[in-house]
Task: structure prediction
Amino acid sequence: MDNYLDKVRDCYSDYFRREEEIDLFTPGRVNLIGEHIDYNGGRVLPCSLSVGTYGAASKRDDGRIMLVSADFSGSYIETEVSVIEEINDDPDSFRAFGWAAYPLGVFKKLIMRGHKMSGFEMAVTGSLPRGSGLSSSASLEVLTCAVLKKLFGLELDGVTASIVSLEAERDCAGVNCGIMDQFVCAMGKKDHAILLDTSTLEYEYSPFVLKDHTLLIMNTKKTRRLADSKYNERRSECEKALLIIGKKFDKEKKNLCEITPEEFEKVEELLPDPIRRRAKHAVYENRRTLDSETALKNGDIDFFGRLLNASHDSLRDDYEVTGAELDAIVDAARAQKGVLGARMTGAGFGGCAIALVKKEFADEAKENIARVYKEKIGYDCEIMKAETYDSPFAE
Ligand code: ADP
Ligand code: MG
Result:
């Protein structure tokens, strides 16, 4: 981690010719289990990671805002507090800022909530791959919240920071997404996962202590081209399923995840294929997520590993959102010594998968998975070891 801290501090002093007032780290996140069920009333079980985004920053008293990313050239952006105060909080107004739409969107949303801030300058760098589903965007937004809180002494708690970050991403950067990413980056804690209901923001920490195990984050490097269109298709398939079976119970079910697997078995023949399989995934994935929480509480990591496997199989066979690359990387992982379980994570069709592996076998597994993946798919993947990590807002 120290390398990245050095990198962001060097970048800061190169551009701003002084030492920064503060530096901070904000985690990225990964969803451990509970995939494609947030829109069916189910819960997700993500954790914050030791890979994320670093920032170095200082206040300015001339009303200017200067932002630079060490991660690509030409990233330097300069504007003024008065400009951000006056522009609309819509993507058209923020488009010209490029990557800086994320931090400037956060700044705008904080102003709109009545926070008083002067100008500032900030350098950032990320240790997680961008655009591959580990939520570098949410990590950058929450980092900005944490930096501005510290620089200007704002009254800002983690839940509010996650809402501000989501508003910035949706309204200013123009990316329509749910709140899970921002919530976990802002509220995650070391050695914990968060069981979260994304529609109510009810949450509970669940212990996730990886004493003898490591999490491998495996980036297929396959772009998630199909993810958006298939996401919408799956959502409407789930809605159709609910229309058909929701009223078949004593008390009408308002979403698929209210239905237990036992209840589902009694009505599933009413559903035509593939809608039956989509609904089956939602119902059983919700059960697997709750079982995972129990397994983690009991320290039953082997059972948790089996649930990860079952989740991927369901996403591959019933929900059909994996694809050759995710299946190849997961199969390669499962074949390695010391691997307890592996699954895709995120929307699917590309992006990342995770594997849970015994520490002593982690390096060997990493090497073998990368080799097998390249043989099968024809290009390199990227595999990182990750741990859980505290958000700057975690108490
Ligand atoms: P993901 O959140 O899955 O990584 P997104 O496409 O949502 O992918 O967000 C990636 C975008 O966030 C980048 O294109 C860039 O605009 C911004 N971003 C994230 N991290 C950084 C960084 N370290 N420096 C500059 N921009 C970043
Ligand atoms: Mg994102």
The chain has a mean pLDDT of 96. The pocket of adenosine-5'-diphosphate (ligand 1) is lined by residues 53, 69, 71, 99, 102, 124-126, 130-137, 140, 175 (CB under 6 Å).
